[in-house]
Amino acid sequence: MVPSIRPNARSTLKGRRETLWLASAAFMVLCTVACGYRFQGDAKLPAGAQTLWVDVFENRTNVAGLEAIVTNGMVFEFTKRSRIILVSDASPADLVMRGVIRSVELKTVASRNKDAAGARRVTLTLDVRLVQPSGKVVWSANGLSDSEVYVVSNDKIFNEEKTQVALGIVASRIAEKIFNRFTDDF
Predict the structure, then answer these.
(1) Are residues 50 and 71 in the same domain?
(2) Could you tell me if residue 149 is inside a domain?
(3) pTM of the shown model
(4) Same domain membership, residue 140 and residue 72
């Protein structure tokens, strides 16, 4: 009679775990590729431009200081997420970003009682364009908008602060939308 060779039970269990792990990893990679997920590319300016200056947005609303909130949001987004060189003056820039804040709309979306708002929605709409030093517009987007809902109270100062915070959030989201358009290779 020939003795049977039985593999070590530990090595069999270890082999099964490794196989299961590799199969799981391969499945996740396949699912990720199949769903169309991809890593975000670098933002690229049109016309081979390397430098950008963000001009202070023109504020056509009655909200004081909104131009600074929107412009700072734009600068922050491009600074944190790209290698595009932002310059501090228009003269050395290959492109200038100019924008117009067209409107800010406040609407009550919930009431606490018959005469008092409980929540408001602020909606910001703006236009933006990239202009070469010659004045030629190389890219533009009109009517970009976003909104944010916030809770209000009987305190007018508190409500003003909440409105300013909501406008900052909305400006940030619009800046992110604009930046994402640059990563789509136009």
Answers:
(1) yes
(2) yes
(3) 0.73
(4) yes
**Which residue range forms the structural domain that includes residue 177?**
46-182
Dig out the tokens for 15 from the structure. 């082999």
Query: Using an 8 Å Cβ cutoff, are 57 and 100 in contact?
Result: yes
Determine the residue type at 90.
A
Closest CA to 144 of 124, 172, 121, 160: 124
Angle subtended at Cα 109 by Cα 104 and Cα 111, rounded to the nearest 5 degrees: 130
Q: What is the C-alpha to C-alpha distance for residues 56 and 58, in angstroms, rounded to an integer?
A: 6
Tell me the residue type at 64. Answer: A
Residue 69 vs residues 57, 66, 134, 149: alpha-carbon distances, Å: 9, 5, 28, 18
Q: What is the pLDDT of residues 25-77, one digit of tens each?
A: 554 544 444 444 444 456 677 778 889 999 999 999 999 999 999 999 999 99
What does DSSP assign to residue 88? S
Q: How many CB atoms lie within 10 A of CB 99?
A: 24
Decide: 73 and 170 in contact? Cβ < 8 Å: no
Find the distance separating the first CA and the last CA of the chain, reported in whole Å.
76
- Amino acid identity of residue 152, one-letter, is V
